[in-house]
Amino acid sequence: MSTDLPELKKFDEASLDAAFAAVRDEATSATKAAGFDAEQFRLQWLGRKQGRLKSISDAWLKTAPPEAKKLIGQRFNALKESIELALAAQEAPGAAKEISGLDITLPGTSRRVGVEHPLVKTMAEIVSVFQRMGYSVGLGPEVETDFYNFEALNFPPNHPARDTQDTLVVADQEKKPLRERLLMRTHTSPVQIRTMLEQAPPLRIVIPGKVHRNDAADATHSPVFHQVEGLCVGEDITFSDLKGTLDYAMKAFFGSSVKTRFFPSFFPFTEPSADVQISCIFCSGKGCRKCKHSGWIELLGCGMVDPAVFEQVNQRRIELGRDPVYDTAKISGFAFGMGVDRIAMMKYGISDIGLLYSGDMRFLEQFA
Q1: pLDDT tens per residue across span 26-62
Q2: Are strands 270-279 and 296-305 parallel, antiparallel or unpaired?
Q3: Does the pLDDT of residue 138 top 50, yes or no?
Q4: How many whole angstroms separate alpha carbon 179 and alpha carbon 168?
Q5: What is the distance between the alpha carbons of residues 141 and 147, in angstroms, rounded to a whole number?
C-alpha cells in the first residue's frame, strides 16, 4: 500500500472527486488482493494513530481552506463508509451468498392476532353497560391503607365484619398506626372513598379492578379475583333508584328476559343492604343444576350508603383542609359490587376459577 498522498492543489468538485476516487480504488484493490488479511487491512486503513484515513484527514481536510472543508468532509465520510463496507464484506463472505440465495416465494411467518382474556372482556362489557348510563370509570391502587380499605368504610378496628374480608398484609407495618398500615385491598370500595375526597356530589362512578383476600384456592375461590363496584351519590337518591339501575344493568348484560329480585343482607358500609339474584340464564328460571333447581342465581350485593361512611369522608376532608360537602341531611347514595370472575365463569361455561389464572394456552385458545 502506498503511503504517499498527492498534494491537493485544486479544490473544485471534479478535482476532489478524482483524488478521492483514486484512494477508493486503492483500498478496493487491497481488499481483493491474494492473501488478504482483514486485521492488517484494518490497522493500515482504519487505525486511529497511523491509519491511511488518519493521514488523509491530516493532509487534506485539516489543511484545506475554509471554503473547501465541507466538500472534502463529505467525500472523506463517504470514503470511510465504503472502506468499512468493503472490509465487512470480506470478513463475512457467506452473508452475501445467503442473501443472494433468498427465496422470496416461500411463505412468511404468520403472526397470530391475540384476543382479550375472558376476564378482561367480561369486565369491559360490564363497565360499558354503566358507562352508557352516565357513570365514569374510577381506578385506584391495589396496595391500600387500613383506613381506606376498612376504617372509612365502617369496619372499626377489631370488628367481626373484618373477618369476612381477611386480607394479605404488607410485612413490617407494626410500628405504624393501624389506619396507616399497608395491605392488599379486599374490594375496590377504597376508590369510592378516594373519589368522594376529591369530588363533591353529585357523582356516579363504576370501579373495575383486581382485589385480594386470604382465601384457600378451590374450584370457585381464588386469593386473587376481580370486582366491578359502583357508587351513585346525590340528592333524593332512593332504594328504588338502586333497584331500577341494577335491573336495567342485568337486562343489558344478560338479556331483556332476565328478572331480578332482592333479599335483605348485611354489609358494614350500606344500610339497608341487599343481595341481588337474577333468574337463571341457563334454564330461564325453570330450575337446573346450575341454579341448584331454584331458578335463581345470586350475583351481587348492594345497598344504600351508610351515613357513617359520609361522616368518615367529611372528617377526612376536614383533615385535608377541604370543605365537608357530604351533608347527610341533603344527600344520599347507593353502592353495589359484583365479582367479575363468577360472571365470566357463568358466561363461558368455565367450571374452575383457576383456569382463568393458569395461563394455559390450550384453555385460552378456546376464546380466540
Answers
A1: 887 887 777 777 888 888 888 877 788 888 888 888 8
A2: antiparallel
A3: yes
A4: 15
A5: 13
Dist. CA 341–CA 221, nearest whole Å:
9
Lowest mean pLDDT among 123-132, 134-143, 151-160, 245-254: 151-160
Query: Helix 190-198 to helix 307-319 angle, to the nearest 10 degrees?
Result: 50
Q: Are strands 224-235 and 260-267 parallel, antiparallel or unpaired?
A: unpaired
Q: Chain-centre distance of CA 344, in angstroms?
A: 20
pLDDT digits (tens, 9 = 90+) for 187-198: 999 999 999 999
C-alpha grid cell, residue 213: 383476600
> Is the pTM for the entire model greater than 0.85?
no
**Which pLDDT tens digit goes with each residue over 269-300?**
999 999 999 999 888 888 888 888 899 999 99
Rounded Cα gap, residues 77 and 67, in angstroms = 17
Q: Which cell numbers hold the place of 278? A: 337474577
Report CA-CA distances (Å) from 329 to 242, 325, 333.
Answer: 19, 11, 12
The CA distance from 77 to 121, in Å, is 55
pLDDT tens digit sequence for 298-350: 999 999 999 999 999 999 999 999 999 999 999 999 999 999 999 999 888 88
Whole-angstrom distance, CA of residue 338 vs CA of residue 91: 65
